[in-house]
Amino acid sequence: MNPDTPLQLLGGITAREFLRDYWQKKPLLIRQAIPDFESPIDADELAGLALEEEVESRLIIENGERPWELRRGPFAEDEFSKLPERDWTLLVQAVDQFVPEVSELLENFRFLPSWRIDDVMISYAAPGGSVGPHFDNYDVFLLQGHGKRNWKIGQMCNTESPLLAHADLRILAEFEATDEWVLEPGDMLYLPPRLAHCGVAVDDCMTYSVGFRAPSAAEVLTHFTDFLSQFLSDEERYTDADAVPTADPHQIQRDALDRLKGLLAEHMSDERLLLTWFGQFMTEPRYPELVVGPEEVEEEDFMNELEQGAILIRNPSARLAWSEVDDDLLLFASGQSRYLPGKLRELLKMICAADALHADNLGEWLKDEDGRGLLCELVKQGSLGFADE
Ligand SMILES: [Mn+2]
C-alpha cells in the first residue's frame, strides 16, 4: 500500500498525513469514509450473536433497574422484547471473528499494522441510546453503519478524571463538549486515546468501532519479565565481586544500584527475546478457546486435500504477524512463535496477508519441504483451517 495515495477512508488525505497529524493526537471526522456504506449485518443478526455463549456482549440501559444498568450476555431471546422503547444500547465485541463480511471491513485499515487492531465491536442503540460520556485508553474509528448517531467530543482525560460512582462502567462525571456532529451511514470519526466522547442514537442506529490494542507500560514490564525469567537460571544473581569497603555498612551505596542497573540492562536489551515476547503477546487471540488445533494432521493428507482443490483460510480468531532478526524470520501465530529460514519470506508474507491459500497461489511453495511443513503446522495449531465447501 502506497502511504502517499490519498484515501477516501481518510477523507482524501494520505496515510502518511493521517499518521503525522491525527493518529494518537487529535480527532478526525470523515464524511462518507465508505460511501453508501451498508451494514453487512442487521440489528436482528447482531442480537442473535448476543445469544451465543462464545460471544461477548453487554446491554446498557440508561434508566433500567438503576441508572446505567449493565447486563452481560449471553442473553435470552425474550430479554430483548422486554426492553424499553428507548435509551438502551447493545454492544457486541469482536464481531469480525464471527461475521466474515465484518472482518473484510478491516482491509480498509491496512495502512496501520494489523497486529495493532484489536477487534470490531458493533453497537446497536434504540433512539436516545448511549453508554454515557467516557474515554477509552485506545484509538478507535467509529464508523456509522445504520441510522444516525450524534457524537460529542470533549476534553482529554486521564486516570484522575472524575467518574460517576458505578461498579462497572467508567462514566465521566464532567464532560465539556467541544464539538458535535451527527454521523450518517458511511461517516466515520477517528478518536485518539483518552479523548472524552459521548454518542447518542438519534434513531435506531448501529455503529462499528474498530478498536486497537496497545499494552500498558505495566503490562509490558510484567509480561516481558515473566517471559524472560523462564530463560534465567537460579544461579544468576546480584553479584558484587568488585566490592570495596564502605564507610557505613547500613547504607545502600550508589555502586549497588549501578550493578542492579547492569543486570537489568543486560537482559532487557536482548532484542531477540524482546521481539519474540512482543510478537507472541500482540498475536495472543482475544478468545484463545476459539483457536484450538484439530486432531493430528498428516502432511500427506494435508497435501492431498490441497491438490484436490481445498482452500485454506485463517481461523477468524487467529492473529498472525511476522518479523525478522539478523538473518532469521519469525512467524507469530496466535501467541506462539517460530523461527524460519530466510527463504520462506514471501510465503510468510502471503500467509499473513492472503484471505485464502490454495494449490494455485501456493504454487512452488508446496514443493518446498519447509514451506509444506509450516503450512501443516499452522493447521495443526488451529491458526489455519480448510474452508468448508
Ligand atoms: Mn468509546
TrEMBL record:
Gene3D superfamilies: 50S ribosomal protein L16 arginine hydroxylase, Chain A, Domain 2, Cupin. It holds the Pfam family WHD_ROXA. This is Cupin. It comes from Pseudomonas laurylsulfativorans. The lineage of its organism: Bacteria, Pseudomonadati, Pseudomonadota, Gammaproteobacteria, Pseudomonadales. Residues 101-229 form the JmjC domain. Transmembrane segments: none annotated. InterPro entries: JmjC_dom (IPR003347), NO66-like (IPR039994), ROXA-like_wH (IPR046799). SUPFAM superfamilies: Clavaminate synthase-like (SSF51197). Keywords: Dioxygenase, Iron, Metal-binding, Oxidoreductase.
